[in-house]
Design a protein that fits this description.
InterPro entries: RNaseH_sf. This protein is mainly alpha-helical. The chain has six helices and two strands, in the order αβααβααα. A two-stranded parallel sheet has the order 1-2.
Length: 113
């Protein structure tokens, strides 16, 4: 993944987000290099002024806070437990991820909130 590819993904995602009635959206990402790259941060700051939680952003949050990153503390752990069971190759891994995310039980999603 490059920062240019990441920006392209964000720019493809934003129109879909704008079509939803979600109100005042905050955008949160981790601190990987492509996420914190100057080009990535410029685009994200334009679209989420004062509402961007990221390395090098204006909003600071506690590091590794389970309250702010429930996907890291519950959802991703749950999904990983399902997708790596059969030691998949890349194509199979993509299929496993799609299947696992499509079939997340409601009670698991409720715990992520």
């Amino acid at each position: 993944m490059t920062s240019d590819r990441y920006v392209h993904m964000i720019e493809e995602f934003l129109p879909k987000l704008n079509k939803m009635s979600v109100g005042d959206v905050r955008f949160q990402q981790d601190g990987t290099t492509v996420h914190a790259a100057r080009v990535s941060m410029t685009v994200l700051r334009q679209h989420f002024p004062g509402r961007l939680l990221s390395l090098r952003s204006d909003l600071h949050c506690p590091v590794r806070s389970p309250d702010l990153v429930p996907c890291d503390y519950l959802l991703w752990v749950y999904i990983k437990s399902l997708i790596f069971n059969d030691r998949p190759n890349t194509l199979h891994l993509k299929c496993n991820i799609r299947q696992a995310t499509a079939n997340i039980p409601i009670d698991v999603l409720d715990r992520v909130e």
